[in-house]
Amino acid sequence: MPKAIIIIPSQGADVAAFDAVARAVRTEVYGGQASIVSTAVTEDSGAYDVTFRTSGGGSFSWEAVHGVSTVMTISHGFSCDGPNLAYHDGGYQPWGSSEDSSCAELTQAAKDFWAKVGAALVPSGKIILVGCFMGGGSYASNVAAASGRKVFASTSLFGAGNKETTLKYVKAIEAGRSPSPMVSFAP
Description:
- There is one protein chain.
- About 25% of the residues lie in helices and about 30% in strands.
- The chain has helices at about 15-30, 110-120, 140-145, 165-175; strands at about 5-10, 35-45, 45-55, 70-75, 75-80, 80-85, 120-130, 150-155, 180-185.
- Helix 1 packs across helix 4.
- It is globular.
């Protein structure tokens, strides 16, 4: 089983940059012991269906994953809606906050997804949300509550598609530090 799962979008702006960053993180932070999983999102009447594929093109299921130390998303993002899986190409944010909650609560789909992620992680495992503003509102703390795991997220702009930036912060988090603008949120 890999040490980490790195989730990246396959749609929208900057997907090649996110893929390159994920590959660098897999090599330079996890010594090749991470799986890169891409997402494909479709929308039907406001409901989102997210399909996961490994970097080799194989299918991926959260139910089959256990004992992982870190789950990370690398994408565009925002404070209420979390990872944007198709920025400028539909803007899919399937794991966001309820529209009627002023960002105070995750959608049921988001709660279900982050609970699956939490179940895949070891008890001391963590979630790292690499992208802009996901730690600036209640989103990251809601993810911590839904997953039962510690979450790290940025409170401001963040260069998720920049290899040097992302490596710097992920290495620090894996070493037990949370440098600004990354903040940790307890479950």
